[in-house]
Amino acid sequence: MIHIYPASSRFEYDKGWLKGGHSFSFGEYYDPENVKFGPMRVCNDDIIAPGKGFGAHPHSDMEIVSIILSGRLRHEDSLGNVAVTGFGGVQRMSAGTGVIHTEHNPSEHEDVHILQLWFEPAERGKEPSYTTGEFDTAALDGALVPIASGQGLEGVTDLGQDMTIYLSRLEAGQAIHFKQAVGRRIFLFVIEGELDVSGAGETSRLGRRDTARITEAPELSLTGTAPVFYMLVDLP
């Protein structure tokens, strides 16, 4: 089944220094019918103004992934980690038993645009950890590129959950086929452009910032109806 959530259904916010949209209940937005999808708990589409960011705050028992779409994001945490990451980079924090961190836009002139994803861990109460990873942005053209995974993929940022996050770019008319084990879930997020999604006898069209939550469709066909940049998450 392909359930479409149009961009207009997101909770939109504009705090001046921070603007974007929540795809799931988060902070001041709470909908008991929209709390999670499998282990996926958060998909925040954030734009942070120059010189601004999130002050020190705690997390525990959550896998947190930040994908930088443009600009640069600075992370610092109570484990002693400091990192600045741009497009082509991914930040992963396994909060485990507890960690305090800050996230900040170090630029004086440029916004930073990120997707931040939270997932419940496969195992709770682990030691917290943090890492950064890189992926080849040119390889996104015409392919699904894994950028973070808990499935032991070589050279891919590790996650504490049985799942994989992919990014891809397609030209109009270009198609990709994706297959996963029966019983798993797929979350799609169109970053830019337009995408047709077909599986289990259904076809749906997603536009910019639309999402889809897909079950009982282990084989999908993904076709760009216009040039498209999108994220696919394979979930248990």
From TrEMBL:
Top-rank taxon: Bacteria
> Taking every annotated instance into account, which residue ranges of this chain make up the domain Pirin N-terminal?
15-118
Instruction: Please list every transmembrane segment annotated in the UniProt record, as residue ranges.
Output: none
- Indicate the segments annotated as coiled coil, or none if absent: none
Q: Where is the Quercetin 2,3-dioxygenase C-terminal cupin domain?
A: 147-235
- PANTHER family given for it? QUERCETIN 2,3-DIOXYGENASE
Query: What family does this chain come from, according to its entry?
Result: Belongs to the pirin family.
List the protein's name: Quercetin 2,3-dioxygenase
